[in-house]
Design brief:
Structural class: alpha/beta
CATH architecture of the largest domain: 3-Layer(aba) Sandwich
Number of helices: 15
Distance between the termini: 16 Å
Strand order of the largest sheet: 3-4-5-6-2-1-7
Radius of gyration: 29 Å
Number of domains: 3
Helix content: 40-55%
Number of strands: 13
CATH superfamily of the largest domain: P-loop containing nucleotide triphosphate hydrolases
Strand content: 15-25%
Length: about 450
């Protein structure tokens, strides 16, 4: 990390301002060599200076340059940010000049990676930065900000410290049995502390699994036979005419996707081809995709026609989704009821119509009720925000539960120490106290350039 890196930190395109970021021990000198204005090497930290970027007597742009001295920067290195006019040509030209005079193009996420490796942030905070960038709704943003402000990391640090104190007490008993001031560590002495940590970690994992839909959203498949109104329901939810709607059966032959915010959570909605027996090769492929989505979706909206009795295709669909999270959408409620409602669970059904925009409101309310979205939003948003974090927390939890079980079996304390230490290490992996180079490279490669 001795070299100096540069990248464009704003979205590339037409806009008022673009920012080119430079970080490293030569950042100030490099930018100063192409800056016409005051001497940047003599500027105090965290100041902004007006001038021009000039290379080989060519004035490239009028700029404002921010100079920030280490260690009080995001990367804990010297950082310079060039604020230039927005535009693809100008921004790229400034970056090109920086690369010509000695900077290296930053890898995806390398600024954040340096912040982590230099001790500015931990892995939970690093992942939260990406979550802030990718947040699609207010709830996802709040979860990300909880991770970014260090509250979640502090919680993990506290749990690790309590496990460490337990390990230290066990070590003293094993290595220095003659030390009279140390409390004798027996299975019964260990058990209360282990159980308390298990309870706190279990609560965090459970809450995080339930709250993960705030960040990842709900993958939703709209399933049903042809011509029951699936595409119309999609259009009403999205509030746009995204799917083609006709009276001809089999109009939707491939998946149509969209996103909508309901109850503060993003629904990733897929309108599928109508499920029925067909000889049409293209439509048959669409039907096969629809059946596959039943296994993959978090929520399935089974659309049925209120104005017709259940058909063989309807009954087959009801069997396919029997063990899934389902809302049965009895569509065309503005028409006379002919459907057999006894075959459809009352607690999971909702009546809709797509004649009016208000006709879909009952479905939105049912989704909020089904996933307890109002309750999730009222929580404190302290969730583990990635599958990696939840997986490591579960591994730590499993280790502690093994300790709890072993305590009841009167297994010697020195053997319990192995599982206790494993749990401590797993929590350390979560925040980056211990890590592999492969993990770090893979994690930060998911970031955008310039972050």
């Amino acid at each position: 990390m001795k070299d100096t890196i540069a990248a464009i930190s704003t979205a590339l395109g037409v806009g008022a301002i673009s920012i080119v970021r430079v970080s490293g021990e030569d950042a100030i000198n490099y930018v100063n060599s192409i800056f016409k204005g005051a001497d940047l090497t003599k500027k105090e930290s965290h100041t902004i200076t007006y001038g021009h970027i000039v290379y080989q007597d060519e004035v490239i742009d009028e700029v404002l340059v921010s100079v920030m001295h280490s260690p009080k920067t995001f990367t804990m290195e010297d950082v310079v940010e060039i604020n230039c006019h927005g535009g693809i040509a100008t921004t790229n030209k400034i970056l090109e000049v920086l690369l010509r005079i000695g900077c290296r193009l930053a890898e995806p996420g390398e600024f954040t990676k340096r912040a982590f490796l230099n001790g500015r942030i931990d892995l939970v905070e690093a992942e939260s930065i990406m979550n802030v960038i990718e947040a699609e709704n207010e709830s996802a943003m709040r979860v990300a900000m909880k991770g970014l402000d260090g509250y979640l990391s502090q919680k993990i640090h506290v749990l690790r410290q309590r496990i460490l104190e337990l390990l230290a007490s066990i070590e003293v008993n094993i290595d220095y049995p003659e030390y009279e001031d140390a409390q004798e560590m027996t299975n019964q002495n260990i058990l209360p502390t282990v159980r308390q940590i298990i309870q706190e970690l279990s609560d965090l994992v459970e809450k995080s699994e339930n709250g993960q839909i705030l960040t990842t959203g709900i993958k939703t498949a709209i399933i049903g036979r042809p011509n029951v109104g699936k595409s119309s329901i999609l259009n009403k939810l999205l509030k746009e005419e995204k799917a083609i709607v006709t009276d001809i059966e089999g109009t939707t032959r491939d998946m149509v996707e969209g996103k909508v915010n309901i109850g503060g959570v993003t629904l990733h909605i897929i309108d599928t081809a109508g499920i029925r027996e067909t000889e049409d090769v293209v439509e048959k492929i669409g039907v096969e995709k629809s059946l596959h989505l039943i296994e993959d979706a978090t929520l399935i909206l089974v659309v049925l026609n209120n104005n017709e009795p259940l058909t063989i295709e309807d009954e087959q669909i009801l069997k396919e989704v029997a063990n899934k999270t389902v809302i049965y959408v009895i569509n065309k409620s503005d028409l006379p009821t002919k459907i057999n409602l006894d075959a459809i669970p009352a607690k999971d059904r909702v009546f809709t119509n797509t004649v009016e925009w208000e006709g879909i409101r009952a479905l939105e309310e049912k989704i909020i009720e089904k996933f307890h979205l109002n309750e999730l939003k009222n929580n404190d948003y302290t969730y583990l925000s990635s599958a990696r974090q939840i997986s490591l927390a579960k591994e730590a939890l499993e280790g502690l539960k093994e300790v709890e079980k072993s305590c009841s079996s009167e297994i010697p304390v020195d053997l319990l120490e192995i599982d206790i230490k494993r749990s401590w290490e797993k929590l350390g992996e979560m925040i980056g106290e211990t890590y592999s180079e492969e993990l770090i490279d893979q994690l930060f490669s998911q970031f955008c350039l310039g972050k």
